[in-house]
Design brief:
Blueprint: E1 16-20, E2 23-30, E3 35-40, H1 54-57, E4 61-66, E5 82-83, E6 86-87, H2 92-107, E7 111-116, H3 118-129, E8 134-140, H4 157-171, H5 173-183, H6 186-196, H7 205-212, H8 220-228, H9 236-239, E9 247-252, H10 260-263, E10 272-278, H11 285-288, H12 290-309
Parallel strand pairs: 3-4, 3-7, 7-8, 8-9, 9-10
Antiparallel strand pairs: 1-2, 2-4, 5-6
Helix pairs in contact: 2-3, 5-8, 6-7
Length: 310
């Protein structure tokens, strides 16, 4: 397991581990009382992407931030590696089951799930698998999965046909490894972050280091290739109607990858209580604008708790 560059920070407790499907899963926990909250990161990130939110929410909640299998400090088994009669594919079904099992085995009671980007899909999948454990789902710039097989038909022709070709090329092991090595460089990571973040001052060397550290782990290349080739599985519009709990969306309006005008269409589902645009904020609001995100999440979680106690 790769050590995070921030493991010495006095702001956080020592990292904890939980064994799931025979694999080590990394998580952080803060807060001793209040409603449990499980924070779920996006692609290529880890629980450290919530470092600006955990201490704030922990004032009133029991906060758990988990590394999905394949990311952060969690195990990165070879895709499809056999475990007691099961395979471990990198899919939302896998991550959804991981979150549901974590809630059941570690948290021990129902919780609020909070996700960013693809973490929103994983959180919703967990809520579908374990409705009895889900108090609500909060989603920050939910992945719209625009390269999904069922959505490609609406894309421009060059993206419709170009994406599958790139996926096939990356599936060739030497090609995928070379591409990952070029991508996993500080300058490249910083360039990508400057696209995703509307406020360049939020793209610090610390943030780049946080995202770079797990890329050095054995198995990181295979995980990257497996997920980039994944264009099936659930869409947000598949999962939302199945939710039996309230949901809210927070959406950075300057997100270049998940357009807010498309995101707003998700607010039409009856499960969605609120859709809150965050003006001038990019793809990762929890990290770029925690001063906006934290109070909104805290207030909504308190509301959920008061309803549960009625």
């Amino acid at each position: 397991m790769t050590a995070s560059p921030l493991t010495a920070s006095s702001s956080f407790h020592p990292v904890k581990t939980w064994t799931w499907q025979g694999f080590s899963i990394c998580y952080q926990q803060q807060g001793e009382t209040g409603i449990p909250v499980i924070l779920v990161h996006g692609f290529g990130a880890s629980w450290w992407h919530w470092r600006k939110n955990i201490p704030y929410l922990a004032q009133t909640c029991r906060v758990y931030a988990i590394d999905l299998i394949g990311f952060g400090g969690s195990a990165k088994p070879t895709p499809g590696e056999l475990q007691p009669g099961k395979q471990i594919p990198y899919s939302f079904e896998t991550w959804g089951q991981q979150i549901a099992d974590f809630c059941r085995e570690v948290v021990g009671t129902s919780a609020v799930f909070v996700g960013n980007s693809v973490g929103c899909i994983a959180a919703m999948q967990a809520a579908v698998y374990a409705p009895e454990l889900t108090m609500g789902v909060a989603m920050l710039n939910c992945s719209l999965r625009l390269l999904h097989d069922r959505k490609r038909i609406s894309l421009p022709w060059h993206r419709r046909f170009g994406a599958p070709l790139i996926q096939k090329l990356l599936a060739v092991q030497p090609v995928g490894k070379f591409f990952f090595q070029q991508l996993a460089k500080p300058k490249t990571v910083k360039k990508i972050l400057l696209q995703a973040y509307a406020h360049p001052e939020a793209v610090t060397d610390e943030l780049v280091d946080l995202l770079m550290a797990p890329a050095k782990d054995a198995g990181a290349v295979a995980v990257f290739v497996a997920f980039t080739a994944y264009s099936q599985g659930p869409l947000p519009e598949d999962l939302l109607p199945q939710l039996s709990c309230p949901a809210i969306f927070l959406w950075g309006t300057a997100d270049p990858w998940e357009p807010v005008e498309l995101g707003q269409e998700l607010a039409n589902y009856p499960q969605v209580q609120k859709f809150i645009p965050l003006e001038g904020v990019g793809h990762c609001p929890q990290d770029e604008a925690p001063e906006l995100v934290n109070p909104i999440l805290q207030e909504w979680i308190v509301e959920l708790g008061s309803r549960e106690s009625d």
